[in-house]
């Protein structure tokens, strides 16, 4: 049985990566700051959740997770931030009153008590540290292929600081330097929603943003025929966490694939 180690496995995308891997027969371990499984009210989620090993680590302290790398055939880095302000996660998930002005506000890191909550640390440094540690691990079965997958991004969004996509691309470049030690997979999804959550929630912020983006994509398809490249680059398709997870696991199981998994490829999978 092939093993999968997911950093951030209890997150919005990470939980679906864990679920898809369990359903495909992988032995799955999730590492996160809390070490706890995701909270869910869906009874259909509980079966796969019980099959995942939920463990605790500090992603900035390799000593807290090195032992898990020794037995990992495949590693996934599903940790990152969209804004350098942790309150946006609560807003976009509908836990706080949504204010678009606050969501797109940027500048000096407002989390003064947490200097690590930056693009440079969360999106880039954690990934490069993990890649470095994974490349050092000596395996008894050296003939068995290993992969490292990084959840990157399709591109930036209007109003989003350039540091976001810059940190993602720099992390990608650093990970690719280890392609002699493992097969790198760089996943570039766009705006993500969860198919199960979307069927249960219609008023949360993420669902509202999804509907707006899908309407814009519809207009680009049917009214403009996707003839204007600038608009095509600006208005990108939405994608579900389930689609991203399925596409990722397909590439992990495809020994000839390495490099960038584009949004278009994810949608076709």
Quick one: how many beta strands?
9
**Secondary-structure element order, N to C:** EHEHEHEHHHEHEEHHHEHEH
- How would you sum up the global shape? globular
Given the helix and strand composition, which structural class is it? alpha/beta
The largest sheet is: 7 strands, parallel
* CATH-defined fold name: Rossmann fold
Radius of gyration, CA atoms, in whole angstroms: 18 Å
CATH class bucket: Alpha Beta
Share in helix = 40-55%
How much of the sequence lies in strands comes to: 5-15%
CATH superfamily (homologous) name: NAD(P)-binding Rossmann-like Domain
Describe the structure.
- GO terms for molecular function: protein-containing complex binding.
- It holds the Pfam family Epimerase.
- Residues 5-78 form the NAD-dependent epimerase/dehydratase domain.
- InterPro entries: ComplexI_NDUFA9_subunit (IPR051207), Epimerase_deHydtase (IPR001509), NAD(P)-bd_dom_sf (IPR036291).
- The structure is a single chain.
- With 269 residues, this protein is of the alpha/beta class.
- The protein has a single domain (3-197, 239-268), classed as NAD(P)-binding Rossmann-like Domain (Rossmann fold).
- It contains twelve helices and nine strands.
- A seven-stranded parallel β-sheet has the order 3-2-1-4-5-6-9, with helices on both faces. The chain has a two-stranded parallel ribbon with strand order 7-8.
- The chain is globular and about 50 Å long.
- It starts with a strand and ends with a helix.
- Residues 95-112 have low confidence and may be disordered.
